[in-house]
Each structure stands twice: as structure tokens, then as C-alpha cells.
Request: fold
Amino acid sequence: MSAVEEEMMVLNKLGMHLRPAQQFVQTVLKFKCDVYLQKENQRVNAKSIMGLLTLAASQGARLLVTCDGEDAEDAMAAVRDLILSGFGEEM
Reply:
């Protein structure tokens, strides 16, 4: 069990506001692994909606996603799909 990391960019126009943050948390809570998001020097637990909102990740923000645990690869794939879809919002 090793950690996987990938840098991703926020694509949707409104960034990581409440609705995308809720979607993100609902997605990562399905996995046993730990999931973290880092923007610049701020790292938060991605299973915490308040943590995600404190990142204030606007469109174009680069986020380092870290998944660590037994299902880390699956969690990373789900996170990647969600972010690349723009959380289903206008991009």
C-alpha cells in the first residue's frame, strides 16, 4: 500500500465552492484510503468539506491530490474523473 499523487487543475468557472466540495467529499468517503488536497503550502483532509472550502480553489488553481491506503488507485481515478468533469458545471 503506497501513496499515489497527481497534480490536477480546477476547471469549472466557479471553482471549489460548496456544491463541488460536497460532491468531492461524497466521492472520497466511498474509499478507505486517506485523501488529501494541497494548494500551494496548504494541505487539507479531502474528506472534510470545511477543509476543502478553506483552500479557496478558484478556476485554474493547481491542486496536488494524494491518496494513501489500500484503495488509493481507485480513489485517485474517481477524483480525477470528478475534477476533469468540472464537477458537472460550466467550464
Q: What stands out?
A: The two ends are 35 Å apart (CA to CA). Residues 3-88 form a domain with the Histidine-containing Protein; Chain: A; fold (CATH 3.30.1340.10).
